[in-house]
Each structure stands twice: as C-alpha cells, then as structure tokens.
Amino acid sequence: MDVAFVSEFIGNERIFRHVDAAGWTPIYMGDSIPMDVGYCKRVVDGRLPRLIPDTTQEREAMALPETTNIPIGSHLSVPIRLSDGRIYGTFCCFGFHPDHSLNQRDLGMMEAFASLVAYQIDLDLLSTSERNAKFSRIEAALAQGGPEIVFQPICRLSDERFVGMECLSRFPNSQGKSPDKWFAEAAEVGLGPALEVSAIRNALRALPRMPENTYLSINASPETVMSRNFDAAFADVDTARIVLELTEHAHVDDYDALRRSLSSLRSRGLKISIDDAGAGYASMRHILNLQPEIIKLDISLTRAIDRDRSRCALASALVEFGKQTGSSILAEGVETANELELLRKLGADNAQGYFLSRPLSLEDALRFMTH
User: Fold this and answer.
1) Which strands form 74-81's sheet, in the order they lie side by side?
2) HSE value, Cβ hemisphere, 13 Å, CA-based, for 2
C-alpha cells in the first residue's frame, strides 16, 4: 500500500493525526477534511467494505471523486474503537493501483493494529484526563487562597529555647493526598511555583506576630527560587528572620543560576537550609554547591538514632562537617527524649519533631513558644 494514516473524527471533520507514505501523498499530518469526503465514514457506516482489493469493483467507491482524482486503486480501513465504545476514527491505508493479493489476513492485521492504536489512545486520554483533574484541583486551591499554614516550633538545644518555626502546608480538602503529593502534582502540571509562592506568602504573614529574635523557616524548590515571582514575595519582609529550606530532591543542572537567583535575598540576610541531609546524594550536592547556613538532618537519620550505631556515626560526621564549614545542624523528626539527648551530645544545634511539638496553628504555636 502506498499511504497509511490514522484519522480522528471530530464533529463534522476528520483530522489526519498520523500519515506515512512510501513516496508522494495527497494528505499530510494535521490536514482536515469534511467527514462526508472520502472513504472513512462510509466504511464505519457500512456503506463501503473494510477490504477493497480493487476499487473498480465497488460502485460506491467509484462514485467518489477521490477514487479517480488521487487515484485510489485499493483500500483497507478499520474503525478505531475505544474502551468506552466510542469510535475515535479510522486506521486506513490505500494503494494507487488495484491489489488482488489483499485478503482477510491483511484485514485481520489491520484490525490488530487498530486495537493497539486504540489501547494507546485510551492511555493518552486517561493521562490527559488525569492531568486536567490535577490542574483543576491545584487551580481551585489557589483560587481559595491556599494552602493553609501550620507551624512547628524549632528548639535550640543549648538552652532549650524555641528560636523559630517551620511553616508547613496543609490542604483542607486534601482528598487523602499528603501535602508532598499536592506539590508534586502542581509541579507536574506546571503550577509548582505558583502553589509554592502562595504558600510562602501565607506563611510570611505570621512573621510580624512572632517574638523578636525568632525566625520563620519556609520551603521552596530550586525551580520556584528561579521563577520570576519569587523575589517579589519578600518585598516588604525582614529577610534576616527568614530561613529558606530547599526541598528539591532532583538533580540541579545549573548551580550558578540558582546562586544568582538567591544572591539578592542572601545579601539582605536570608539564610539557606538544605533539607534531607543524610537521606541521599542530591542534598549533599546542594550543601557543597550552596554553602548553606543550616544543614537539616533527615528524619530517616534521626529516627531511632539512639539505638543505631550507623545513624549515630553519620550524624556525628555531619555535625563535624557543619563545624568545619560554619553551618549549624538542625535535626528534624525527633520523637523521643533519648533521641533528643543523643543529638545534643553529638553537638546538634537545633531540633524539631513531635517530641518537642507537633505542627500547630499560629495562635497555638505562639502560645507554645512564649510559655
């Protein structure tokens, strides 16, 4: 056959989504023609057979201008039927001359290919539908002013005073999804920076109400840091009381660009914290390339650290690394008195976790820090 194509039926037109030809072809990918022109709709309706070895033997085919104008001497066409029963379009091929060797076996192969095409289209449509649903969920959260913010106090181990709070996002209509999942879906549909900046703006409203000499720790990915609206969120903020916690686990391709994006805020006193130290290679690359003021020990390292020599050894090495590089060490996920005491002995500077305080509303967090 000389030309093969997949067409999609949309309203009263069919669109050529894929076209393959051995040489010259009268149609190209993206072309559209009225539905009643040509063979496809007539095959689906049963007015033309799916297998036509010789168009001169089909009166209906010979009545069509395309048969002589192109010309079409032989034709194979099968509908592409989706899993919900809808006809997506057709999978067709034709030759410029009759081909009497075409038979039911060839038609069966066409039908098998059409089934594979239908399966892939079903997957693509499902993916598009899921993407649209995610986009709508994130847009709705943004339209409602979300996400909401809760605050987890951070304790200085040397004198057991609370010196700051980490701002954590919450989604009231979470639909069973964790905050991490919401931000991952936002990034997937291109709304990651918008959702993160919205969370940052909501978090920064707490700063004027906090005790002096305390700070807010906020989260942002490198993609958001390098987005155009990021700096504007800090326009009227005392950035010397802000710690920016970089949350990205993936590879950063251009640390020079990331450092440039951070330079203005760092010159105004903003401090950098690297999350998840001890949990993977990405966080160590961030530490080496960004020289943060704070290194945050991951919960996977602090959990049961008092009963695990390997965790203890790695935490001790990171504490020593912090001393050598001028970075303070913050341990997250502290859940027991024994974990806290061991981290204090190792030389960790600060800690947070359920043993000290769960994430709280702003009012409760302020009362907790004060009393």
Assistant:
1) 32-34, 13-21, 3-10, 87-95, 74-81, 51-52
2) 17
Is the pLDDT score of 154 beyond 90? yes
- Summarised one tens digit per residue, pLDDT across range 33-72 is 999 999 999 999 999 999 999 999 999 999 999 999 999 9
Cα–Cα–Cα angle for 292, 253, 166, nearest 5°? 35
Q: How many CA atoms lie within 13 A of 233 on its CB side?
A: 25
Q: Is residue 295 within 8 Å of 328, Cβ to Cβ?
A: yes
Give buried/exposed letters for 129-163 (b at 16+ CB in 10 A, else e).
eeeeebbebbeebbeeebbebbbbbbbebeeeebb
C-alpha distances out from residue 188 to 111, 127, 184, Å: 35, 12, 6
**Judging by DSSP bridges, how do beta strands 350-351 and 148-156 pair with one another?**
antiparallel
- Of 366, 350, 367, 320, which is closest to residue 243 (Cα–Cα)? 350
One-letter identity of residue 357: S
pLDDT band at 282 (very low <50, low <70, confident <90, very high): low
Q: Which of 360, 141, 306 is nearest to 368 (CA)?
A: 360
What is the maximum span of the chain, computed from C-alpha positions, in angstroms? 96
Query: In the chain, what are the domains?
Result: 3-132 (3.30.450.40), 147-370 (3.20.20.450)
Flag whether pLDDT at 179 surpasses 80.
Answer: yes
Q: Quote the CA–CA distance of 269 and 330 in Å, as a whole number.
A: 19
Residue in the structure block whose two tokens are 């093969």: 4
